[in-house]
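Cross-posting from the chemistry board since nobody answered there.

I work mostly on the small-molecule side, so proteins are not my area. We synthesized magnesium ion and want a rough idea of how it might sit in this target. Sequence and SMILES are below. Is it possible to get a predicted 3D structure of the two together?
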Amino acid sequence: MNAEKRPWWQRIRWISAFLRFLGVWKSPESTKSATEPEPLPEQGLQGNMLGKSSKRSKRIAIVSPKGGVGKTTVTANLSEALVGRGRRVCAVDLDAQNALQFHLSADPVKPEGLASATLRSEPWSETLRKGVEGLRFLPFGFLSEKHREQFEQTVVDGPAWLADGLSTVDHKQTDYTVFDTPPGPSEFQRAAVEMADLVIVVVLPDAASFITVPTVERTIESYAGQKANEFAGLYFLLNRMNEGRVLCRDVRAMLADRLGDRLVPETIRFDAAAEEALAAQQTVMAYEPDGRAATDFDGLAAWVEQTLK
Ligand SMILES: Nc1ncnc2c1ncn2[C@@H]1O[C@H](COP(=O)(O)OP(=O)(O)OP(=O)(O)O)[C@@H](O)[C@H]1O
Ligand SMILES: [Mg+2]
C-alpha cells in the first residue's frame, strides 16, 4: 500500500516514529535513557558466565563488505519470517549503530545492551528484549566514547566474549540466532562468522557490489577457516532487486555465473514498503505482510530452514 493511501492514524504513528528515530522528537522516557548512559564499572569480561546449555540454536551471520546494502533489514525480516514459520528466534545486534532495535520494536530506546552488559560482566539475559511473540533480541546498546573504546579492546582481547555472552541466554528457547554486523571486515564480523553455521553476504544488483565479491570471499573464508565442519557455508543474497532494470538482471546473471549455488536462490526485490516500515519502526513482515519484500523474506526463511536442516 502506498504511504499516502494509509489511514490518518497510521500515518501519524509513522511520522512520530520517524521523528523519534531521527532524534527530532523524543518521548520523555527515551530522552533520559538514550542520552545519559549509566556509569560503568571499570572491569572486563570475566570468563564464562551463567546458564550454559548443551543444546544450541542454529546461528546465521548477516554480513557485507559495503554499508547500506540491507544487512539490518535482512536480519530483522528474516528473524520475523522464521518466527512466522513457528520458529523461536534471537536476533543479536553486533553493530554500534543500534539500528536493529528500530526494526523490531517501537518501545523507547534504552542505553543498555550487550556491550554495557559485557563491560559490567553481567549476563546478557538482563538486556534481552521482546519483539513479536517468539522473537527476542539483544540490542548493542549505547556507550560513551570511553566505554566504546574499552568494549572494542575487550572484543579484541577475548575472542570468547560472544560465546560467553550468548551462553547466558537460554538456548532452550531459541531455534535460530541471527547476527547483524557492521559493514566491512571487523572484529564483530569475525566473531559472528566464527560462530555461524551459515553466513549470508548481502549484495546489491550493481557493479560496485559485484567487484567486492572476491575480497569478501577471502575475508569470510579466513574468518570461518578455524571453525568446526558443521559450517553450512557462505552464501550471497541479492537484495533490492529490480527486474525492470537491465543492469540489475545483468549483475544477477554475472553473480550466478561466478557463485553457482552459493547465490541464494531467493532474491529480495526492491520494495518501497521496506523503507516505510523502518520509518514506522516495524519490519516489512509486520508493515505489509502480503507485499513483495515480505513474500521474499518468507521464501528466504524457508531456504534457511532447508539449508540448516
Ligand atoms: N528490499 C528492499 N527494498 C527497498 N528498500 C530496502 C530494501 N532493503 C533495505 N532497504 C532500505 O535500504 C536502506 C539500508 O538498509 P539497512 O539499514 O538494512 O542496510 P545495512 O546494510 O544494515 O546498513 P549499514 O551498513 O549502515 O548497517 C534502508 O533505508 C532500508 O529501508
Ligand atoms: Mg545495518
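Reply from a structural biologist on the board:
Welcome over. Reading the output above for you: Strands lie at 58-63, 89-93, 129-130, 135-138, 176-180, 198-203, 233-238. Confidence is low (pLDDT under 50) at residues 18-38, 40-54. Happy to explain the C-alpha cell format if needed.
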